[in-house]
Design brief:
The complex is a heterodimer of chains A (223) and B (220). Chain A is mainly α and 223 residues long. Chain A is built from ten helices and no strands. The chains are: A mainly alpha (223), B mainly alpha (220).
């Protein structure tokens, strides 16, 4: 099997397991919608106010629900001793990283694909534009690239639910800033050119941390 | 005389010289007044904080590559000293900002990157202490040290683009008077020597701890 076939097999295993247990997507989705609703109460005084804070609300929601689903990414592997099984396979550790990354990415995108229309509905905003979908996909790749590395790391620590957000959130600050800015411009109906700086920023982050995580991941799941 | 005593002597002499230069020799800055003197401590603290972070990054890579515990000892010692210096430089910066900018804190690129740097240092220690046993602590910490070091410049860039309207601190625009430059340079050298001294002490202490653990294990 080629590198990609192996990685896709691992991702597919996660998808099957998720379809049978429905552990991640449903609960994370409920959480995401709850965050949106709570923010609505926190800021929802006027229409103008909501439009101003909408990009921030959207990205805080995605970052928090991302942490939640990433927290689960390696728990199943750890609890049932599956990680040992994966590591006993005649495949590189990098393949495990890419496979788990694809799985997490898929779950996060699935949650976002449902949360975005709900957000659009509740806040009365035109979020289903090609611009916004591009921003969401790019930023989620960044979340998943760094998140998969830290999720594997956090699973092997005590108090893992705490370690992941403490590691993950400060480091994805650039993605959150760029995504909030680009989303603001997209919601204001600006052109691609206006938000290009921010899209480049997220893309650069994605590439840098895909490479760095790919290289450092083998050291995290060594034993 | 070993290296440590020589460094200790140098650090004491340089610190005394710095104190003299900062409080007696250098003239008071015209617009900011006496509070500007904190600058001569603030900038060296920041320099050492970033230097320490670079050392963490470099020795984390060497540790993951070579797998000898001595490299991890250097990285972790540097992270400890770096955390102290980062805390101090955030504090001195805040004290300086209050009278000069009128606020304790502003989301300026430099300040925010420093804050993120500080949080990464905290996460570094947290991961090390929370990892369960074996070589996991050092390995996880090394990964955080590497990823964090690469992240900080990206944070700085993102925030620079985000807050383009912020004026740079006045001190970096006009250049410094020769007397101020001299004071700053002496302080920079003094704090760098202090960092080296702290590093030697921490590394020696950590090696002793390791040795004691090893002895205890062989006896029992």
């Amino acid at each position: 099997m080629s590198f990609w076939n192996k990685a896709l097999t691992i991702a597919w295993k996660d998808v099957i397991s998720e379809m049978r247990t429905r552990e991640i997507i449903i609960s994370v989705l409920v959480f995401a919608i709850l965050v949106i609703v709570i923010f609505n109460f926190a800021f929802g005084e006027t229409r103008e106010m909501l439009t101003a804070v909408a990009p921030g609300i959207l990205w805080v929601t995605f970052a928090f629900s991302g942490v939640l689903s990433l927290n689960r990414a390696f728990v199943g592997e750890k609890e049932d001793g599956c990680l040992e099984g994966l590591m006993a396979c005649p495949i590189g550790r990098e393949v495990i990283y890419v496979g788990k990354l694809l799985g997490s990415l898929l779950f996060m995108l699935a949650v976002e694909a449902i949360a975005l229309p709900v957000f659009a509905l509740l806040f009365n905003l035109p979020v289903l534009s090609p611009e916004l979908i591009t921003i969401t996909v790019l930023a989620t790749i960044g979340f998943a690239a760094l998140g998969t590395l830290f999720s594997a790391l956090a699973t092997n620590t005590r108090a893992r639910e705490m370690v992941l957000p403490i590691l993950f959130l400060p480091l994805v600050v650039p993605v959150i800033i760029a995504a909030v800015k680009a989303t603001g411009l997209a919601l204001a109906g600006q052109s691609w050119a206006a938000m290009s700086t921010w899209l480049y920023m997220i893309t650069a982050f994605d590439i840098v941390f895909l490479v760095v995580s790919y290289l450092t991941f083998p050291f995290v799941i060594e034993e | 005389m070993n290296v440590r005593n020589i460094l200790l002597g140098c650090a004491v002499a340089l610190m005394a010289a710095s104190l003299y230069l900062v409080f007696l020799y250098v003239p008071t800055e015209a617009t900011m007044g006496v509070v500007q003197r904190i600058f001569y401590f603030h900038v060296p603290l920041a320099w050492v904080a970033f230097l320490a972070f670079f050392i963490v990054f470099a020795f984390s890579i060497i540790y993951l590559w070579k797998r000898a515990e001595k490299w991890d000892v250097i990285a972790s010692a540097s992270a400890e000293v770096g955390t102290v210096f980062t805390t101090l430089f955030l504090a001195t910066g805040s004290i300086w900002a209050r009278p000069v900018w009128g606020v304790w804190w502003t989301w300026d690129p430099r300040l925010t990157s420093a804050l993120i740097l500080w949080i990464i240092y905290i996460a570094y220690h947290l991961v090390r202490t929370h990892a369960d046993g074996g070589s996991r602590g050092p390995r996880f910490a090394a990964v955080v040290g590497i990823v964090g070091f690469i992240d900080v410049p990206i944070v700085a860039l993102a925030i620079t683009l985000w807050r383009t309207q912020h004026p740079g601190p006045a001190i970096f625009q006009g250049g410094l008077a020769p007397s101020m430059m001299l004071t700053l340079m002496v302080c920079l050298v003094a704090f760098t020597v202090l960092y080296a001294l702290f590093m030697l002490l921490r590394i020696a202490m950590k090696n002793d701890e390791r040795e004691i653990r090893r002895l205890k294990l062989t006896r029992s």
